[in-house]
Design goal:
It is a single chain. The chain has a single domain, classed as Nucleoside Triphosphate Pyrophosphohydrolase (Alpha-Beta Complex), CATH 3.90.79.10. 27% of the residues lie in helices and 25% in strands. It starts with 9 loop residues before the first strand and ends with a helix.
């Protein structure tokens, strides 16, 4: 702990890509062991937003643009961009509304990730429209104030395009895996996968759903309660607690586990 002012959290967005075939599954990617956040962990595709995500020109290349304010537009574009970079899935349709089914060029994904190519130029070239309105708000988590890296992360859920194939980028992520949420939790508890606290809590919430449609319906009906874990002293040591009304039940996570997740 420190008396220094807390680090300002950076806006971030994450996508829970869902499918029902062969069973209800979510797409997760494994972070490279050399990245500076959540190394080696199994996570949902996502990351920090970029300045280009807020470009007003997206209004000509995104469905649902008029439904959202400026903040939500940038977050949703950022979420779709991150999913494209990390998994190769592009949440978009052709301008006539037909599904986009082409494979995403790994070199183009890498160029967007390196900011050598603007994401909006890729979308223009493909002549498609991002599906901002396909993203349902699932959760919002803000990293505790004592952590050295902080993010204000919006979690969105969306049905994955049925004709696209997921593939890791080989740089930030080294594996892409469709997995039933309950199975991911079992692997985490068995020590066979590293899954950080916020991801684990959202997998737990996700596991309550029976299908992609059920998940989106539950998320739409659930009041959005922003989660910023707080430290509480209890017998046996310090724990992190989160608001019960956020929908995760009674949670008391050992603080030591959270601190371990902060190490690169």
């Amino acid at each position: 702990m420190s008396d220094r002012p807390p680090v300002e959290p950076k806006p971030a967005a994450t996508v829970l890509l869902l499918r029902d075939t062969p069973q209800f599954e979510v797409l997760m990617v494994k972070r490279h062991h050399q990245v500076d956040f959540a190394s080696d962990a199994l996570v949902f595709p996502g990351g920090k937003t970029h300045a280009g995500d807020a470009d007003p020109a997206w209004g000509h290349h995104a469905r649902g643009w008029d439904r959202f304010d400026q903040t939500q537009r940038a977050l949703r574009v950022g979420a779709i961009r991150e999913a494209f970079e990390e998994s190769g899935i592009l949440l978009c349709v052709h301008r006539d509304g037909s599904p986009f089914a082409a494979a995403c060029d790994p070199a183009v994904r890498a160029a967007v990730d390196a900011r050598d190519v603007a994401f909006i130029d890729v979308v223009r070239e493909l002549d498609v429209e991002l599906e901002l309105d396909a993203l349902g708000v699932f959760a919002r988590w803000i990293t505790p104030t004592f952590m050295p890296k902080r993010f204000d992360t919006w979690f969105y859920a969306a049905k994955a395009p049925p004709l696209q194939v997921a593939a890791c980028d080989g740089r930030e992520t080294v594996d892409a895996e469709w997995i039933p949420p309950a199975d991911a939790l079992l692997l985490s508890h068995a020590g066979q996968r590293t899954i950080i606290f916020p991801t684990r809590m959202n997998l737990q919430l996700l596991a309550e759903a029976a299908s992609a449609a059920d998940c989106l319906s539950r998320a739409s009906a659930r009041p959005l309660v922003t989660v910023m874990p707080q430290v509480e002293q209890r017998e046996g040591g310090s724990v992190l607690i989160i608001p019960r009304e956020a929908g995760y039940g009674e949670v008391a996570e050992p603080l030591a586990s959270m601190m371990g997740e902060a190490r690169p």
